Amino acid sequence: MTRLHRFAEGVAALLLAVIFIAFMVQIVMRYLFNWPVGWTTELSLAAWLWLVLWGAAFVLKDDEEIRIDTFADGGSPRRRRLVQAVGAVSLIVLFGMSLPASWSYVTFMKVEKSSYLGVRMDVMYSIYIVFAVAVIGRCLRQLVRGPAPRAADASSASAL
Amino acid sequence: MNFTSPFSLALGVIIGLSLLGVPLGHAMIGGSVLYLYLKGMDMGAAAEQLLNGTYSSFLLLAIPLFILAATIMSTGSIMDRLLRFCNAVVGRFPGGLAQVNVLQSVVFASMSGSALADAAGSGKLMQTMMTRDGKYTPGFAAALSAVSSVIGPILPPSIPLVLYALVSGTSIGYLFIAGVLPGLLLGAVQMALIWWLAKRRGFPVEPRVPLRDMPRITREAFPALLLPVILLGCLYSGITTPTEAAGVAAAYALLIAAGLYRSLRWPDLYDALLSSAKMSISIGMLIAGALVFNYVITSENIPATLRGMLQGLQLSPMMFLLLVNVILLVLGAFLEGSTIILIILPVLLPTAVALGIDPVHFGVMAVLNIMIGLVTPPYGLLLFMMMKIANVSLAVLVRESIPFLLVMIAALAMVTVWPDFVLALPRLAGYKG
Questions:
Q1: A47 part of contact set with chain B, CB < 8 Å
Q2: DSSP secondary structure of B209-277
Q3: Structural domain boundaries enclosing A34
Q4: By the CB < 8 Å criterion, does A87 face chain B?
Q5: What tens digit of pLDDT does each residue of B45-65 get?
Q6: Are A80 and A56 found together in one domain?
Q7: Which of A35, A60, A85 delimits the end of a domain?
Q8: CB contact under 8 A, B46 and A98
């Protein structure tokens, strides 16, 4: 598990590196060679999309997500387990409910191709299905195993 | 309001799930799916909104790049050099180290876009420096680190302003430039307050750094100090797009950290990439959820309804802004800030525009307000963070931060009633508003 998690982290770091390098190439091409290229934009957007959904599926632990832990993490272990179970079941139902429609949207996108790299859009967007299935899987695991022990230094993550 | 309408139920599910500790992005997707289901709409629309929104927002790429730049800048010896420079400049004034803390925040703010990153980056270091030899009480030092971090997202670059640009369609370049004067104002009122407190409470003065050492200290910090200049130059002149400016900032940070200061080795680079990636993912996921939920808000026509309601009240623009300030301060005490920007501001903005309020002014004011919320109890994330870093009680921290809160609210009032103060610099750069 830890090895798989490290692999997932490596992929995330790589995707961020791809965004960064694609940007550098874009700026150099445009300003030094006066030759604007479109594929760099497309590559960095694709890497960004995959970074977010891949990361949310496999890299971030629950306490690294932006969430409100004030009410959820307090109280007795039993209460915490119950609170988390209700959350997990709701997500399983809601993500499960929308999975068939999401699948048909993503597969429908096979008719389109990305403008520069010519990637089929159903392939590009398939990461959403991976993400949705991973969310359901993680919730199921949480139900079976109960809540993870609370990390000592877990702090509320935020974007600001 | 009908409590069994699909929208109310969806909103209830989102709030409920958030309180259960479900990540906010997931909760917003879940609630939106329920709305689509109850309305008999295609549930695939959730995936569609999320995928198209994330894949098409070139602007959002600025977020991972600014985070990367700030992470690299806070590694290794760069922070030390900046601190030495700040100490040489303001250490000699009353409350020397406290002044250094604020100046350091101003300098670092112009490299990073996140208050929490600022507090995490330098908070611990400043805490140790300020409390060594009992110079300052731990409570004061921690409160100061928390309030000075608020400057971070006002001065460019700013992740909250990128989020606002995303939902409002306002130019991110002008928003960044508009943040400069309010950010400096915030630094100035904090330093003035420290000066005053220093006289009353007898804060120590740091030994004067001899003038002959200044050139060396400045030279050592100079390449790092140049980053904000480059960034603002890119924005002001329009040489690069703001998103590309974020890439330039990251490249420059990498160049000086690895090339010039040699403080960044391969493992450090990997760690910087990974921790930046993680932070970007958590923000990206929140944005993804907001994209889906904003689709629901739009299908319900909520912004227009609210505009109609508020216009019925015949509010003057100033009354409206004050009302918004109060709403945001109250919401900020309970809601996470980026959620307010992504969900609440787009609902309020059409009314603001209809009242003739400038969207750039509105955005800077709202972000400043939300940032102040980060140090306002009970849900002030910065307070919690410094509580953990400095190991002081919330009560002490709150007591020490109240004077700072008051001067910051005064600064917010000034920004609210004086749009020209915010808009002067953007207008110089060609903004028509």
A1: no
A2: PPGGGHHHHHHHHHHHHHHHHHHHHHHHHTSS-HHHHHHHHHHHHHIIIIIIS----HHHHHHHHHHHH
A3: 1-60
A4: yes
A5: 999 999 999 998 888 898 899
A6: no
A7: A60
A8: yes
